[in-house]
Amino acid sequence: MHSAPPVLVVSDLHLDQEPSPTLSEFLQFLDGPAQGASALYILGDLFEYWVGDDAGFPAAEQLADALSSMPMPVTFQHGNRDFLLGKAYANRAGMELAPEVLPVELEVGRALFMHGDSLCTADTEYLRFREVVRRPEWQQAFLARPLAERIAEAERMRGASRGAARMKPGEIMDVHPDAVAAVLRSHGRGLLIHGHTHRPAIHHFEVDGQPCVRCVLPSWDEVPGYLRVDANGPRLLTLDGGDYPVESGLPADPA
Ligand code: MN
Q1: pLDDT score at 159
Q2: Using one digit for the tens of pLDDT, what is the confidence trace for 56-66?
Q3: 118 alpha carbon – ligand 1 mean position (Å)
Q4: From ligand 1's centre to the CA of 85, what distance in Å?
Q5: Which of 82, 215, 229, 246 is the most exposed place for a label (fewest CB within 10 A)?
Q6: How much distance in Å is there from the Cα of 13 to the middle of ligand 1?
Q7: CA of 215 to the centre of ligand 1 (A)
Q8: How many Å lie between the centroid of ligand 1 and the Cα of residue 1?
Q9: CA angle 212, 215, 221 (to 5 degrees)
């Protein structure tokens, strides 16, 4: 059967200020499998933190050069770490900035793309923090501070977020089945693709009796990989093109 080139989706690369092995892997991915894609989507946490488009971190600038020469559309969605990434950097990288919930028409069906943090509705402490840092006034005040102060604050917030994550039970750090059902229902979609939780898998479940699929992208800090979607459906792959080693032995996820 004739099939259009695949759509590729990645998230959670968590790139640092300086070039790293993960940056090299991603540049190889852009030069390799990504070249044959019809579109590339980056669903947030591309960077470990973002303190402003003026920061000029070497890894980010190198990546902008590579992304801007990609032959297909590249779309970026904010994660909870790089939510301050703005139009200036997106333009340098040739990326389209997408809203938090992005409907995408795929050959295999109508999908929704999200970073995923807003689906972790049991983590009320995080959601309160998120509500504050997404306010335009907070962002303008933060971006107006000297670069060194912004970096120090981002480092502090990263430490606090890691500490909090260690103290919370696993279910709280995962997406909530009700939030997943609600977003699929409200957009009339049966396929959700997101990152953030670092629990790569493809889940099959039902919402209101309708079969649904939720694809969770891998974190590149662990085993790097990506989602490839074509007419045959979604597949999680490692960078060498093999099937992604999805964890087994976990209890069945209701969503
Ligand atoms: Mn995240």
Answers
A1: 86
A2: 999 999 999 99
A3: 10
A4: 14
A5: 246
A6: 10
A7: 15
A8: 37
A9: 165
CA-atom Rg of the chain in angstroms: 18
Q: What is the pTM of this model?
A: 0.94
Query: Is 80 within a domain?
Result: yes
The alpha carbon of 64 and the centre of ligand 1 are apart by a number of angstroms equal to 21
CA–CA separation, 43 and 32 (whole Å): 19
Contact criterion met (CB below 8 Å) for 216 and 199:
yes
38 C-alpha vs ligand 1 centroid, how far in Å? 25
| 29 lies in some domain | yes
- Does 1 reside within a domain? no
Which residues partner with 70 through β-bridges? Answer: none
Please give the distance, rounded to the nearest whole angstrom, from the Cα atom of residue 4 to the centre of ligand 1.
30
Percent of the chain at pLDDT exceeding 70: 96
The 10s digit of each residue's pLDDT in 197-234 is 999 999 999 999 999 999 999 999 999 999 999 999 99
Distance 2 CA to ligand 1 centre (A): 36
Per-residue pLDDT, 255: 45
Domain encompassing residue 17: 7-237
Task: Tell me the CA–centroid distance for residue 67 and ligand 1, in Å.
Answer: 21
Decide: 32 and 224 in contact? Cβ < 8 Å.
no
Task: Quote the tokens at residue 201.
Answer: 């898998």
Give the residue, 4 or 26, on which the prediction is more confident: 26
Distance of CA 95 from the midpoint of ligand 1 (Å)? 19
In the block, tokens 């209701």 appear at 254
Within-domain flag for 101: yes
CATH at 52: 3.60.21.10
**Residue 165: pLDDT above 70?**
yes
Q: How confident is the model at residue 249 (pLDDT cuts 50, 70, 90)?
A: very low
